[in-house]
Amino acid sequence: MGSAEGYRPEIDGLRAIAVLSVIFFHAGIPGFSGGYVGVDVFFVISGYLICSIVVGELRSDTFSFAKFYERRARRILPALFVMLLASAAVAPLVLLPNDMLDFSRSLTHVIPFLSNTYFYDQRGYFETAAELKPLIHTWSLAVEEQFYVVLPIAAWALWRWHKSFLLPALVIAAAASLAYSQYSVSADPHAAFYLTTSRAWELLAGAILAVFTKQRNLPAQPSQAGGAAGLMLIVFAVFFFDQTVAFPGLNAVVPVAGALLVLHYGAPQTAVGQLLGSKLAVGIGLISYSAYLWHQPLFAFARHLTLTEPGLPIFAVLIAATLALAFLSWRYVEQPFRRGTIDRRGIVAVAVAASVFLFSVGMAGTVSDGYARLYQASWDSRQLAIWNEGKNAVPRDNGDCHLSFRTVSAELEPRFDACLEKYGKAIVVLGDSHAADVFGAIASQSDRKFILGVAQGGCRPHSPADKCHYDGFLSFLERRSQAISDVIYVQAGFHMIQDDDGHPGDRSFFRKRAIPVYRPDIDAIDQTIRYLNTLSTRARVTWLGPRFEPHVNTMKIKKFAMACEDAQIEIHDSVSRTWQALDAFLTTRLAEEPRLRYVSGLAAVPFDSRHDLYDCHSVYWEDTDHWSASGERRFGKRIVAALQASAQ
Questions:
Q1: Cα–Cα distance, 25 to 395 (Å, whole number)
Q2: pLDDT score at 507
Q3: Quick count: other Cβ atoms within 10 Å of Cβ 179?
Q4: Is the four-CA dihedral 71, 76, 78, 79 of positive or negative sign?
Q5: Crossing angle of helices 312-329/288-304, nearest 10°?
Q6: What is the number of H-type helices and E-type strands within the chain?
Q7: Do residues 223 and 272 touch, judged by C-beta distance below 8 A?
Q8: pTM of the model
Q9: CA atoms of 543 and 8, how far apart (whole Å)
Q10: Residues paired with residue 490 on neighbouring β-strands, in sequence order
């Protein structure tokens, strides 16, 4: 381990806690909602051990940059390259071109340890799409390696200048990084999560502990209370944090402080030290790096091969496979390279050759749009039509009087006036991205010539952003009320539900398992009703209620459609019950509003999982909850009929 005390088995046990927390979190195991903090524990351990080595060698005047980076290369690269080679071989067999393109781009960023910046640009570690990215977990390796480009240089320079300045400099750097992290949590959450500037303090925390104990010749201090407190902090974060917790920032202090306490006080003679030093914990800790590498590709590829979230039995098999591959990687890849059986020239040769090869594979996939032509060469015209269908096939704005706008702008007014003179009064479809779907559906199936869509994704009256369109549309309606016959309001249903803890519904609601009980968010619904009542003083307002959203793997559906295979897709009963409860609540609540009309989205567009996902010529869903062009045409007929029936 490189610490002054020699090998400390409890540190490997702490690694086991960290890696299992991450794996169980990514597998969606109930209870491990904060398992992502395992990465923070890894950061602290890494900073502590690496800085212990650097300071120890500086004190003995044996530090060498070449030896430092050689050790890092032996530790990190061989197992990483094996995982990347295997993933690159499997990816074309599992992924379709768009996912293959993303995989290829991420591969080109993993090699120079810049994947954290790539995934920062892609955004959304906690979103469903992130679960489908085989290499997203490499962001943490990038953070560590970027950190270790700077740390040894800074430590060496400070030590040569004045060794007593090293600890204060680390403390100042850690404080600055933590301050930036806390600022970014609200200003730019993705930067806070992915970028080294907001994560460095976690590694520096371990480094500070190492320097502090080295300078004072303090080995780990046995303390039953200290070790237990540290482990309890980590366990608390693993089980009680979730995706709604602002992170990292100050909240990350909980697992970081826990790791520091265990490192300093959890010596082998304590209860925590004995627990973490057990054979099982140490065994998992020894293979933890390889386990971390292998789990995400296995999970992501499995998710690509299933329409809905794999069940717990499948993940149990995947976790077992992860640990088996990790042992093989540790035994036959990590150990030979770390023991020095391959000399420095060999390490350099392997690193350069593997890097060039893998980067070339990634670039080939990038410039070829995910090898799209190779895929498409084997597809017939029907399959190509299914693959190429998308939103662009729908004339959102037909150049005449089907007007589609994200917000009320100066460009809208003259076109609106011209259409009013040409066709008479307009109907308006207002809301979020689901309203944009309904606009396309009505425009494609209705004989109305003058339809205005004012729809913007993520914008709802109960949670408007600065650039949302609701105030602007209200002002527009006040000026043009005589020119608008009907306003049809539409919004996504999962933003009108919340769990028993008050957390709003999100994409995790639609996983097949571990679904919490959701109920209507009364405050959000009442705020929306107040806004719609304001509109109703100027025009007739209809709320077209939330439709059923399957939230299944659209790419897998495309595979079924292209193969013209029939499949019955299982939708979890809890999902159906939640939608029905929300629709029933809205029906009852809107009956109390005489100026508003409610049309059930579930009744207007009843969902049949066998027939309303795809057929041999079309896929009706663009993604997990939005319609494709053919979906808008298919479901538009039902919507137009329901709206016409409700008006009679």
A1: 42
A2: 45
A3: 14
A4: positive
A5: 140
A6: 27, 8
A7: no
A8: 0.77
A9: 64
A10: 431
Q: Using the 8-state DSSP alphabet, how is residue 515 labeled?
A: P
Residue 627's SS3 state is strand
Residue 347 pLDDT? 84
Predicted pLDDT at 4:
41
- Determine the pLDDT at residue 296: 97
What DSSP character marks residue 547? Answer: P
> Residues 258, 233: contact at Cβ < 8 Å?
yes
The whole-angstrom distance between residue 181's C-alpha and the CA centroid of its chain comes to 19
Mean pLDDT by 10 residues, the chain (648 residues): 64 96 94 94 95 88 89 92 97 90 95 94 62 94 94 89 88 96 90 94 95 78 91 96 87 96 92 94 96 97 82 93 97 87 81 94 94 86 81 64 90 92 94 92 90 89 79 92 94 82 56 60 92 94 90 78 76 74 93 94 86 88 85 91 84
Query: Collapsing DSSP states into helix, strand and coil, what is residue 606?
Result: coil
CB atoms within 10 A of CB 280: 9
- Residue 207's Cβ-count burial label (10 Å; 0-12, 13-18, 19+) is buried
Rounded Cα distance between 635 and 644, Å, is 14
Q: Please report the pLDDT score of residue 512 as a whole number.
A: 41
Q: Residue 583: enclosing H or E segment and its boundaries?
A: helix 573-590
> Which regions of the chain carry the CATH code 3.40.50?
393-549+571-606+630-647
Residue 30: its H or E element: none
The whole-angstrom distance between residue 215's C-alpha and the CA centroid of its chain comes to 41
CB-facing half-sphere around the CA of 556: CA atoms within 13 A: 18
The C-alpha atoms of residue 578 and residue 589 are separated, in whole angstroms, by 16
**What residue type is assigned to position 280 of the chain?**
L
Q: Are 245 and 40 in contact (CB under 8 A)?
A: no
Quick check: 553 and 307 in contact, CB under 8 A? yes
Q: Of the candidates 510, 496, 490, which has an alpha carbon nearest to the alpha carbon of residue 632?
A: 490
- Strand order of the sheet with strand 426-431? 402-405, 451-455, 426-431, 484-490, 540-544, 596-599
Coil, strand or helix: which one is 266? coil
Spatial distance between the Cα atoms of 642 and 131, rounded to a whole number of angstroms? 37
Domain 393-549+571-606+630-647 in this protein, CATH class:
alpha beta
Please give the backbone phi and psi of residue 435, each rounded to the nearest 5 degrees, phi first: -65, -35
Indicate if the alpha-carbon torsion angle 408, 413, 419, 421 is positive or negative.
positive
pLDDT value at residue 98: 85
Residue 368 structure tokens? 């070829």
CA distances from 9 to 148, 219, 280, 507 (A): 24, 15, 11, 40
DSSP 3-state of 405? strand
Decide: helix, strand or coil at residue 455.
strand
| CA–CA dist 532, 544 (Å, integer) | 12
Looking only at the bridges linking them, the beta strands covering 484-490 and 540-544 are parallel
